[in-house]
Structures are given as C-alpha cells and as structure tokens.
Amino acid sequence: MIALSIPTPFMVGRVNCYLIEDDPLTLVDTGPNSGKALDELERALAEHSHRIEDLERIVITHQHIDHLGLVDIIARRSGAEVCALDLLVPLIEDFAAEAERNDELAEALMLRHGIPRDVVTALRSVSRSFRAWGGSTKVTRPLADGSDLGFAERTLEVLHRPGHSPSDTLFHDRERGELIGGDHLIGHISSNPLISRPLGGKSGEPGGGRPRALVTYMRSMRETREMDLSVILPGHGEPVTDHVKLIDERFALHERRANKIAGLIEEQPRSAYEIAQSLWGNVAVTQAYLTLCEVLGHVDLLLEDGRAVEEDGPGGTVRFAAA
Ligand SMILES: [Zn+2]
C-alpha cells in the first residue's frame, strides 16, 4: 500500500491516504475538500502513473472531514464505488445535517460542564466554517463489521473499533499482517477520544448518559492489542511497527491523566471546565471542546472505577467529586 500525504488546514497537519494498486484500484480516505488537497492528490497519483479517473473503489476509515471531504468530487470524476462501514452511511450521505446535530450535542455538553457561553458561541461558528472542508456522497457499498472486502490479490477484513470517533473502521490484511488504521492509533500523538453522536440511531450509553468515548476507545485498543500485526498504516504520521508497545504507552498515559484528575477533585469538587483550566490553563477557544472531551474521558474512567462521583453544582453545572 502506498501512502499519499495530503495537506489539511487543521492542526493535525497532513493526512495519509492510501493507494492500493490492486484490482480494483483503490483509494483509502480522500483528504479534505479543498483545491489544494485535490491538486496534491492528483500529483501524488500521477507519481504512480494513475489519475483520479482511474480509481475504481474509495474506502472511508471514519467520519472526520480531513479523511472524507473530497469523497464526492473523486467519486463523481472516477465513477468509483464508495465503501464505508454500514453505520457510517447515513452520516456520509448527509454530512452537513449530521455535523449540525453533532454541534448541538457538543454545545449542550460544553454548557453543562461549565464552559462559558461566549466560548461556546465562538466555537460553534468556527465549527460551521470548518464544515466546508467536508462532503457528502452516496455510499454504494455499505460494509458490515467483521465482513471481508475482496480484491484480486488480497482480502481486507472490516473491523469496527470506535473510540476516537464512533465510526472508526480498521481494514486488516491478515495475510500480510497489515492494518489500515485511520486515526485509531497514531504514533506521534495520542488520538483524542472525541465525544460525538452515537451511530445507528442508538441513544448512547445505557441509562441515557453522555457517550463515554474514552471508555469505548480503551476497549477498542485492548482488542487491537491482541492482534498479530507487522504494521499499522495510520491516518497521520509514520507507520506504527510495534502496536503493543504503543498501546501500552497509551494505557499508561491515560492512567496518569486519570490519576492527576483524581488528585484535583480530592482537593475540591470541580467542573470539567475547572479541571481543564487546572491542567492546561486558559485553553484557546478552538481547543475548548477537545480538552473537555479529554477531561470527561478520564473522569469516565474514574467514575467506572468508583473513584469519582458526579453531582449537580451551582447554576446547573455538573461537578465531579472524589468518591
Ligand atoms: Zn479523525
């Protein structure tokens, strides 16, 4: 598989798309919807003697715009089939509406956890302006978790491993020990456990609470840890050749953060926003939701272990206290 490094306007930097020179000729992920990304994709394909028009299959790893923004443009120009996890289909087919509903969830969560309204309002407009880098298209081939996607020379097993996003999908070439990982595991950064609307019309966690993205993500990483792999081809950065070591580092990192937060709420009950401020000071507006998701993810680990309790604080803001 050939990595094509495509620019994005986001903090994460470039995104890796993968070209599979097999029958059908396949592109995994597309890059964001921008002229610059499209130019560079065309140039990268040309280096391997292909054009956009030659592509026969597009595969999407998850719902984020840096991975799928160009999907409609490429599908139209090439006539390629579009493959994605079945649960992800409604989202790809109506990206803007889904993004709006996701922003509503984010806004409610931010207000409930103490983020000031002016920050929430500013972030909402930033998010709206980002949406232009997304895109919608018709998914012609929905993929079931656990199913096989066949090529002339290889078979990729489809694995749903949510956590970074609810739709994270891995593609496993068992014969070669290769795993196309999307943002499930990235070598140089710990993937954010972003809280998003649950897929498939499910109401979320049992009891109707917020989606517990980090708890879900840890479960997914434990499954991946058991796999026999020679390499993970990630959505950003360099290939990961020792996934067990990397996953163990991630587990240790999350444990350290959870312990740090446990210490903070032992001193006094705090809202998630107050915890974020204690950890990182005043965070930039654009980072407000990411840091909230980080804090809530780790608080969820403490809640699950019975080390924290959730209580109503002043003004309807949720506070966390030591159990
Ligand atoms: Zn992502």
What's the story with the biggest beta sheet? Answer: 6 strands, mixed
Helicity level, as a percent range?
25-40%
Structural class: alpha/beta
User: How far is it from the N-terminal to the C-terminal residue, by CA?
Assistant: 49 Å
How large, in whole angstroms, is the Cα Rg?
20 Å
Low-confidence residue ranges: none
Secondary structure topology:
Blueprint: E1 2-6, E2 15-20, E3 26-28, H1 35-47, E4 57-59, H2 65-68, H3 71-78, E5 81-85, H4 89-93, H5 95-112, H6 117-130, E6 141-143, E7 148-150, E8 155-160, E9 169-173, E10 178-182, H7 213-225, E11 231-234, H8 243-267, H9 272-280, H10 288-304, E12 308-312, E13 318-322
Parallel strand pairs: 3-4, 4-5, 5-6, 10-11
Antiparallel strand pairs: 1-2, 2-3, 7-8, 8-9, 9-10, 12-13
Helix pairs in contact: 5-6, 7-8, 8-10, 9-10
Zinc ion binds next to loops.
Short description:
The protein is α/β, with parallel strands linked by helices and 323 residues long. The chain contains 10 helices and 13 strands.
